[in-house]
Design a protein that fits this description.
five-stranded parallel beta sheet, alpha+beta
Length: 364
């Protein structure tokens, strides 16, 4: 979402295709209430400019603007761009067939005949496609719905990195504790504190190698590194890790220090833990949400666990510049035979997609 201000009014350039605010328990009503567009008094003050073209697909955008005779590649890119729009709205079309719809029309099982795929029993072929010759390609990424899948793929990819691994441990201490007699501190040893995990906070134990691709889990303003930036490790020291930035016009080398994270323990608001650790997480794979705003060169899209929130499938499918550089990874039971034309039936990947039609109506 982008806010820009002119002399007379505020202009909002937005798209309903992105994922929505994260709300505890993923309750639809609470999610909708968190949207700025749900406040009609504020929303009517904005001029909206919907983004209806995926500008990452530069070939498709140029071909559509030029018109005339198209090459086979341009036609394929245009079809993929049209499929993305249909996916973003759960709209039934030849490129995005709705084969099962929930009662409220929010969850639709889509058949995507354009998508190439590998099944879970073909995982080695999937890796060969992503990493030809089993050589790590730092521009390739695996996208997943859940952190469990991300951790699994990160482990698989890191094992292909032949550099020596280094274990980096955090320093964990209590920060705010309503514990005047030190009962809690005696009960919760350092070992217990080390085992606490929280989304967005690095684990107590990081196992990293030179050459690993990582996400920076906290914005480092002094280093001009944004949250969720992708970097590649150059060297690992005791106090800093030297990395090169990825995805920027000009590659930079920076040194990332350990920083302090604070988070509440699951025992009430009075128990807070301070963890000093490097703000890094392996990023050979990442979740759909973490990939937002990023342009990726090559994507293996793991849909064995389906999207669980509005807009996630669109975000995952729209990270690449070329439709030939994305392939689905799914379970065999996610394949369904559908009618392609009068004479052809084809086995195609299917996936449940969540699109809250209320959001589209609000934005319109």
């Amino acid at each position: 979402m982008y806010f820009g201000e002119t002399a007379s009014h505020i202009v909002l350039s937005t798209s309903e295709f992105k994922t929505l605010p994260i709300v505890k328990r993923n309750d639809k009503r609470s999610i909708l209430e968190a949207l700025i567009s749900s406040n009609t008094d504020i929303w009517r003050q904005f001029n909206t400019h919907p983004l209806t073209t995926n500008m990452r697909l530069a070939t498709a955008a140029a071909a559509r603007a030029r018109g005339g005779i198209l090459t086979a590649e341009e036609e394929a890119q245009l079809m993929y761009a049209d499929m993305l729009i249909d996916v973003s709205r759960n709209k039934h079309s030849p490129l995005c067939q709705a084969i099962l719809t929930s009662d409220d029309n929010d969850i639709v099982r889509l058949a995507l005949p354009l998508m190439k795929y590998y099944t879970d029993i073909q995982w080695q072929r999937a890796l060969d496609w992503l990493y030809p010759g089993r050589q790590l390609d730092y521009t390739a990424t695996i996208l997943c719905a859940t952190n469990e899948s991300v951790d699994m793929w990160n482990s698989v990819a890191q094992n292909m990195n032949l550099s020596i691994e280094k274990t980096l441990t955090s320093k964990d201490t209590f920060y705010e504790v309503d514990d005047p007699h030190d009962h809690i501190q005696r009960m919760l040893s350092t070992t217990v504190l080390n085992n606490f995990r929280k989304s967005g906070i690095p684990n107590h134990k990081l196992i990293l190698k030179v050459g690993d691709v990582c996400l920076v889990t906290r914005a480092l303003c002094g280093l001009q590194i944004a949250n969720n930036s992708r970097v590649r490790i150059v060297s690992i020291g005791e106090h800093t890790i030297q990395v090169t930035t990825m995805g920027e016009n000009t590659e930079r080398t920076v040194r990332i220090p350990r920083i302090t994270f604070k988070f509440r323990l699951p025992y009430g608001k009075s128990y807070q833990l301070t963890r000093k650790q490097f703000p890094l997480r392996l990023a050979y794979a990442m979740t759909y949400n973490k990939s937002q705003s990023q342009t990726l060169s090559k994507v293996l899209l793991d849909v064995t666990s389906p999207p669980f929130s509005h807009g996630q499938l669109y975000v995952a499918l729209s990270r690449v510049r070329d439709c030939r550089n994305i392939v689905m990874f799914l379970k065999g039971e996610q394949l369904t035979e559908i009618q392609i034309d009068e004479h052809t039936r084809q086995l195609v990947p299917t996936i449940e997609n969540i699109v809250y039609q209320d959001v589209i109506e609000l934005n319109n």
